[in-house]
Write a structure and sequence with these properties.
heterodimer, A: alpha/beta, Rossmann fold, nine-stranded mixed sheet, 13 helices, globular, B: mainly alpha, 2 strands
């Protein structure tokens, strides 16, 4: 990546030049450094590349200058694993001395570096969902403008029980934190509204064939899936091919029906309901600019991965604007990020709760074919959804974090 | 002053450079990279006992590495002290090594490789799928580093020194091991297993003990790894980790002490430093390995020594005996 090398060399040249200047001038002249933890190699690379496109689009629109501060952008590839995330976070913090980190992508990567960024006082704007980072182990240096794993799934649980009037459901998701947290969020709200989750299926992250899992699905009103990466494509195809889709409607979390996936999907996706915090057909001014630029530069319909990083960029801009010359103070920046409220982002208006997690709209969408193209049409908007849904914050936090069997499912059937 | 020779001078210089590394390298990021090189060097040295001296190529050592890491991390997570956790981790790793050894040493060559590969994958499977114990893909966090003698290892500098001490002990142990009669016996089982058997050596036992020794140091490296990363997840036990360690040993030079250390430096630097500049660092690493295998099939360290010697000899013969060379040229 020759561009990267050049930015680094530029950075070196700039820092040598800076050393010669009086201290007063330095704060003005030194660029504000944004480091991105993303994944460019391995199975999660697709989402990681979209993340980089999202922030790159934002910086290009802003001409690499946020509130008058020149931005230096450094991207690091974690390889999609926790040890890689740790090493690259160290690289960004200790070698590049970035002012703020954006990313990482996966929950297990975030869990691996949350203590590290706190100990090294570096603000981080996460895309990854790991619930406890903004709940029981809230980190004063982390904000999350995307969503916790369960934030959209609570909504889906509500919609499935109240609007779709489903009574019995089966959940299926990958056997890791993001899957557990999503499925448990759905289960809790669905059952609190009279539904029953009768079976939970957990295929591993790398599953060559979903047939044995889909074969266990029967006698329910709906299936809720929380797949991520490229797995939803495989799963939905098998679900339709085995003839289950015609009988049992499919519901999806945000990653399982992300707008960026639509180009890889066919008719098997028609009719799938999804709950997402971002929808490419959002009507805000910034979203129209964002979608247009993404289509022009990369020829893609952006999904949550890109939008999340675009919004992260907007948060950084707002924080710099508020702090002015003090934006180099890492603690002040982290605090300012927590205070950010934005009215015009691609997902709509957002603000943060005291734990650093976003409060924003969540959309229920139904996949349709329009003019020969798949689109996720928004059919209902839940405004200002918090990570605690409608539950009392204290009572919510007193319970253990969502896990494979937490909260316990009381209605399982063999 | 007969004790001064070039080898001792080189070792002395290397020691001084290693001991003063945080001073001259400055940036904590590079100090951390150095710590990683040293801890993976311990792992590669451990693997080298089997690969280099025993002629037994193992692809399951990540299992032992991760076994120590997980035991340590889970013990700490359960609220035990560092001493107990480290002790438990080493005992469990030794026990696992014994099981691995008993199963894998039924065979040598490809058979041994396949059995160790399978055993390593079992550990990975447990780490990945037994989520109730290992927390699955989410991994286990290690909240604190130990503070031996009251010195906290939280900073990059102190952790580097702790790793350096462990590394030096490992190197010294390996050096003693290689020179000992047991080391010679192990090399014997590698080169002439049947003759060793005929001479009355218990070939199986020698290999088994070497396996335990190798497993022990893999465990030590695993512990250094979790204290360095303060985190462990199933990826650590995956085949990639075993393969990387094997690449370190083979690229540096099997059956040498310096080889695995150089190999570890090569892989860690490619993985951490070069990857920041070149997205396709895997490709660069691959090309480097192909070059090493093509031009120095015995590994970087022995290969460089060979090139140095032949170059030196060529130069020497040219300088000292031009006349002889001339007559040689005039020959038939």
């Amino acid at each position: 990546m020759s561009m990267k090398r050049r930015t680094v060399l530029k950075g070196l040249a700039a820092s040598t030049a800076v050393l010669a200047m009086p201290a007063v001038l330095r704060a003005q002249a030194a660029p504000f450094k944004i480091g991105l933890l993303t994944v460019k190699t391995g199975p999660l690379a697709q989402g990681g590349i979209q993340m980089e496109q999202g922030i790159a689009t934002f910086l290009k629109q802003k001409n690499n200058t946020l509130s008058g501060r020149k931005i230096e952008f450094i991207s690091a590839d974690t390889g999609g694993n926790p040890a890689g995330a740790k090493t690259k976070a160290q690289e960004l913090v200790e070698r590049d001395k970035v002012n703020v980190i954006l990313g990482p992508l996966a929950a297990f990567e975030l869990l691996a570096i949350t203590d590290y960024v706190r100990d090294n006082a570096t603000p981080l704007i996460s895309l990854a969902a790991a619930e406890d980072v903004t709940q029981r182990k809230a980190n004063p240096f982390i904000i999350r403008p995307s969503a916790t794993s369960a934030q959209c799934c609570h909504v889906m649980g509500d919609y499935a029980a109240k609007d779709l009037k489903f009574k019995r459901a089966i959940t299926i998701s990958e056997d890791f934190a993001f899957g557990y947290e999503q499925m448990s969020g759905f289960l809790r709200v669905f059952e609190d509204n009279g539904g029953k989750v009768v079976k939970k299926l957990w295929p591993p992250l790398v599953t060559p064939d979903y047939t044995p899992y889909i074969a266990q699905i029967s006698k329910v009103d709906c299936v809720f899936n929380g797949f991520a990466g490229s797995n939803p494509v495989k799963f939905m195809r098998a679900y339709a091919d085995l003839g289950v889709k015609a009988k049992i409607p499919l519901l999806a979390g945000w990653t399982a029906m992300d707008d960026a996936l639509l180009k890889s999907l066919g008719d098997e996706a028609i009719g799938v309901y999804s709950a997402a915090w971002y929808s490419a057909d959002g009507q805000t001014a910034s979203n129209k600019r964002f979608v247009a630029d993404m289509q022009k530069d990369y020829n893609v319909l952006p999904g949550g991965y890109s939008a999340g990083m675009y919004i992260a960029g907007q948060c950084v801009e707002a924080a710099i604007q508020k702090l002015g010359g003090k934006a180099d103070d890492r603690k002040a920046l982290a605090d300012a990020l927590h205070q950010v409220t934005l009215t015009d982002t691609p997902r709509g208006a957002i603000k943060f709760d005291k734990y650093g997690n976003v409060i924003g709209d969540v959309f229920i969408r139904k996949c349709e074919k329009k003019d020969g193209k798949l689109v996720n049409t928004v059919i209902k908007k839940y405004p200002n959804v918090s990570q605690f849904w409608t539950y009392d914050e204290k009572a919510f936090l007193a319970q253990p974090v969502y896990g494979r069997d937490a909260p316990p499912a009381k209605n399982l059937e063999q | 002053m007969s004790w001064i020779n070039s080898r001792r001078v080189a070792i002395g210089v290397a020691l001084v450079l290693l001991a003063t590394l945080p001073v001259w390298i400055g940036n904590p990021y590079y100090i951390n990279v150095s710590s990683q090189i040293l801890l993976f060097a311990v792992f590669a040295l451990a693997l080298n006992v089997l690969v280099g001296y025993g002629g037994l190529v193992s692809l399951g050592h990540a299992g032992l590495f991760a076994m120590a890491g997980y035991t340590g991390a889970l013990m700490l997570d359960a609220g035990h002290g560092h001493f107990v956790a480290i002790l438990a981790a080493l005992v469990v790793t030794l026990a696992t090594s014994a099981v691995f050894g008993v199963l894998a040493l039924r065979s040598t060559g490809i058979g041994f490789l396949m059995i160790t590969l399978a055993l390593g994958q079992i550990v990975w499977g447990i780490a990945y799928r037994w989520a109730g114990l290992t927390n699955g893909d989410n991994g286990v966090n290690v909240t604190t580093r130990p503070a031996p003698l009251g010195i906290s290892l939280a900073s990059a500098d102190y952790f580097y020194y702790a790793t350096l001490v462990v590394f030096l002990i490992a190197v010294a142990t390996m050096a003693v091991f290689v020179r000992s009669p047991f080391g010679a016996a192990l090399r014997g089982t590698r080169d002439q297993a049947r003759r060793m058997n005929a001479l009355g050596y218990n070939v199986w036992l020698i290999r088994f003990l070497a396996f335990l020794f190798s497993g022990f140091w893999s465990g030590v490296a695993g512990l250094l790894f979790i204290y360095y990363n303060q985190f462990i997840s199933p990826q650590v036990s995956a085949l990639t980790t075993s393969a990387e360690a094997l690449l370190m040993v083979i690229s540096g030079g099997t059956a040498t002490l310096l080889g695995p250390i150089i190999g570890s430096a090569l892989v860690v630097i490619m993985k951490n430093v070069v990857s920041a500049y070149i997205e396709r660092w895997n490709l660069v690493l691959g090309v480097i390995f192909v070059l090493i295998i093509s031009f120095m099939p015995e590994g970087l360290v022995p290969g460089s020594v060979r090139l140095w010697r032949t170059g030196w000899q060529a130069l020497w013969s040219r300088l000292s005996a031009p006349a002889a060379r001339k007559t040689g040229e005039q020959g038939p």
